[in-house]
Amino acid sequence: MDPKTKVAVLISGRGSNMEALIRAAQAPSCPFQIALVLANKPDAKGLEIAAEAGVEALCVDQKPFGKDREAHERAIDAALRERGVEVIALAGYMRILTPFLVDAWEGRMLNIHPSLLPKYPGLDTHARAIAAGDVEAGCTVHLVTAGVDEGPILGQAHVPILPDDDDHTLAARVLEQEHKLYAATLARFVSEQRIKA
């Protein structure tokens, strides 16, 4: 039996998608394991959740690096390589990445975004979808590239927008789909990577 692909999840807050990935990885048939949860803020609640689930939880605090984002990312990169991480899953990691980290992990870094990309990259996706009169919203898992939310799409889930939805009710329903979509897309992605290898 092949060893499972080692995935690191990068978070900035509670990390509900991270929690869903940890749960999914516990299934014997899952092709990935969560080898590390890494946060850029020491008070990220997700660190506690990861540790309680028996996953290594590490903070590489951005503060000591000041405005030098690349130096911060070099410290993150070193921690990932030290642990033999093969794939990165961004899950509510609220920092815009520099070309250093994007290039270093090209083709091996995934992100989940709460809209049906290419619609509504960036923030306030649910409010923007409702304001536009869209009949559906959703979420997208994509590869990370230099452009914000522009990488190749790996998977999407569609969620109808109901007449009485506001951005909070819609966000809650989209989040349920995010949890399912991210785990399923990541599993398919790592399985395909192994076949290529």
Automatic annotation (TrEMBL):
(6R)-10-formyltetrahydrofolate binds at R69, M94, R95, I96, L97, N111. Pathway: Purine metabolism; IMP biosynthesis via de novo pathway; N(2)-formyl-N(1)-(5-phospho-D-ribosyl)glycinamide from N(1)-(5-phospho-D-ribosyl)glycinamide (10-formyl THF route): step 1/1. Keywords: Purine biosynthesis, Transferase. N(1)-(5-phospho-beta-D-ribosyl)glycinamide binds at G15, S16, N17. Gene3D superfamilies: Formyl transferase, N-terminal domain. Belongs to the GART family. Catalyzes the transfer of a formyl group from 10-formyltetrahydrofolate to 5-phospho-ribosyl-glycinamide (GAR), producing 5-phospho-ribosyl-N-formylglycinamide (FGAR) and tetrahydrofolate. This is Phosphoribosylglycinamide formyltransferase. It comes from Caulobacter segnis.
